[in-house]
């Protein structure tokens, strides 16, 4: 049984205690299940619309219902779990409002409370991975790795397919979270030149990642690709790179009294998972091949950006909860396993270390390949077939997620990137990290 992340035996110094306090014993998931309802009846009108969301979207009456809401304040939100649920609610309602018509809405009418809640959680006012997954699940027990015991609290479509899609990401986060303390201990042991601890940790990480890949393979059990592509994916779209869908300026967040701001934000994406970036940091995966996908300062108005240009991986950290972003920043300052692996070999233990590192990068590359396979089945293939749920020749699932490049059109992810080329590049970077470890010269190793 792995040590809990908040276990004092793995915390050590005050600095480490601060680092561990930024996550929970479940990794990047909450310590306990998200709230199923806001306790104060003041927010009941939000809750009622969320309850009816699949029907309102199907009947295309969502904008009338939300448009008639009174503007609520955030003063009656108390605990962090309440703030998280309120954020999740407004993410669903906002995306339902924007994408729930024949054409997208250029105005977010729930902007005022949404911006306040987003600022509190240090998240952007858009449907993020956190809202759709981390704050949106229930479990039959305390073990969040049990996919069969998980379900989404809320969905856009009202289908089991969508619930399964969200729940699978929760199970991935829970299972992956178990190796977080293991890898932190390993990175901390580098200063002691402790080959054995790092090797064992990498071996455990490899096993975990292979289990995560097996979890991805379970997507097809209860999630149909056509349901995902046509009933769910349109609502995951953000407002960045969506000119083809009718949002050339993004969406105007109306704060009332003539105040507001146009914002272009990425949609919900697994690329916003802190766990995946944690694995990248641990293994020293360098994604410089994706540096051409940059965003200019100011594209995320609600988030402070201190650097002029951000790579995709740097930018999406601003789509993670503030504590998780700070955690990753702290991990990035720790001793690097990759540097340790590449240091001069001094013993047979170093050869075992290099092999364990290669195994881990290979497993992580295979995980990314499995993700590409899933994207092909759930996005690429359905995009080439007629919509079985609508006779309309054009729907927002295709219009909002196709990047027009003249004669050649590329599918984009809900996060706003060129989909397959981006994923292939990330996979190749991951495999490549392991290949940089040169075979050891036996004569250089001391007996």
Search tags:
Trp/Indoleamine_2_3_dOase-like; mainly alpha; metal-binding; heme binding; about 450 residues; about 50% helix; disordered N terminus; metal ion binding; indoleamine 2,3-dioxygenase activity; 3-stranded mixed sheet; Methane Monooxygenase Hydroxylase, Chain G, domain 1
Structure explained in plain terms:
The chain has 447 residues and is mainly alpha-helical. It has a single domain (8-444), classed as Methane Monooxygenase Hydroxylase, Chain G, domain 1 (Up-down Bundle). It contains 18 helices and 9 strands. A 3-stranded mixed β-sheet has the order 1-4-5. A hairpin with a 2-residue loop joins β4 and β5. The two termini are 35 Å apart. The relative contact order is 0.12.
Q: Enter the CATH topology name.
A: Methane Monooxygenase Hydroxylase, Chain G, domain 1
Strand content: 5-15%
Uncertain stretches of 5 or more adjacent residues: 1-14, 290-308, 402-408, 440-447
Strand order of the largest sheet: 1-4-5
Q: Helix- and strand-based class?
A: mainly alpha
Number of helices: 18
CATH architecture: Up-down Bundle
Q: Give the H and E element order.
A: HHHHHEHHEEHHHHEEHEEHHHHHEEH
Largest sheet: 3 strands, mixed
CATH class: Mainly Alpha
Averaging pLDDT over every residue, what do you get? Answer: 87
Number of separate domains = 1
**Gyration radius from CA atoms, angstroms:** 22 Å
Total DSSP E strands: 9
Distance between the termini: 35 Å
Secondary structure: helix percent = 40-55%
């Amino acid at each position: 049984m792995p040590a809990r992340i908040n276990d004092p035996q793995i915390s050590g110094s005050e600095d480490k205690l601060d680092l561990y306090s930024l996550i929970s014993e479940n990794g990047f998931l909450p310590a306990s299940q998200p709230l199923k309802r806001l306790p104060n009846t003041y927010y009941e009108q939000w809750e009622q619309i969320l309850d009816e969301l699949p029907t309102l979207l199907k009947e295309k009456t969502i904008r009338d219902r939300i448009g008639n809401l009174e503007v609520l304040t955030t003063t009656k939100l108390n605990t962090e779990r309440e703030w998280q649920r309120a954020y999740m609610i407004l993410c669903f309602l906002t995306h339902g409002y924007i994408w729930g018509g024949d054409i997208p809405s250029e105005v977010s009418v729930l902007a005022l409370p949404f911006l306040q809640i987003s600022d509190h959680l240090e998240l952007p006012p858009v449907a993020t991975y956190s809202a759709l997954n981390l704050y949106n699940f229930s479990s039959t027990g305390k073990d969040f790795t049990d996919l069969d015991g998980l379900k989404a609290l809320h969905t856009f479509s009202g289908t089991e397919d969508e619930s399964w899609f969200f729940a699978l990401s929760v199970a991935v986060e829970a299972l992956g979270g178990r190796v977080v303390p293991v890898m932190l201990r390993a990175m901390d042991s580098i200063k002691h030149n402790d080959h054995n601890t790092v090797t064992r940790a990498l071996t455990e990480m490899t096993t975990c990642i292979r289990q995560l890949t097996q979890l991805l393979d379970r997507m097809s059990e209860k999630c149909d690709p056509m349901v995902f592509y046509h009933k769910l994916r349109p609502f995951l779209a953000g407002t960045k790179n969506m000119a083809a869908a009718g949002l050339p300026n993004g969406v105007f967040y109306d704060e009332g009294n003539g105040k507001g701001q146009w914002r272009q934000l990425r949609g919900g994406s697994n690329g916003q998972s802190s766990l995946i970036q944690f694995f990248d940091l641990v293994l020293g995966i360098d994604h410089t091949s994706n540096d051409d996908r940059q965003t200019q300062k100011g594209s995320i108005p609600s988030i402070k950006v201190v650097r002029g240009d951000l790579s995709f991986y740097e930018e999406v950290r601003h789509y993670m909860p503030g504590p998780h972003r700070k955690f990753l920043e702290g991990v990035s300052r720790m001793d690097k396993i990759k540097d340790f692996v590449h240091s001069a070999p001094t013993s047979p233990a170093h050869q075992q270390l290099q092999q364990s590192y290669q195994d881990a990068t290979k497993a992580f590359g295979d995980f990314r390949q499995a993700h590409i396979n899933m994207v092909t089945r759930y996005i690429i293939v359905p995009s080439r077939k007629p919509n079985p749920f609508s006779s309309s020749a054009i729907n927002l699932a295709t219009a909002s997620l196709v990047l027009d490049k003249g004669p050649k059109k590329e599918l984009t992810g809900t996060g706003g990137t060129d989909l397959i080329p981006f994923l292939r590049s990330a996979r190749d970077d991951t495999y490549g990290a392991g290949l940089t470890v040169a075979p050891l010269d036996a004569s250089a190793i001391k007996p």
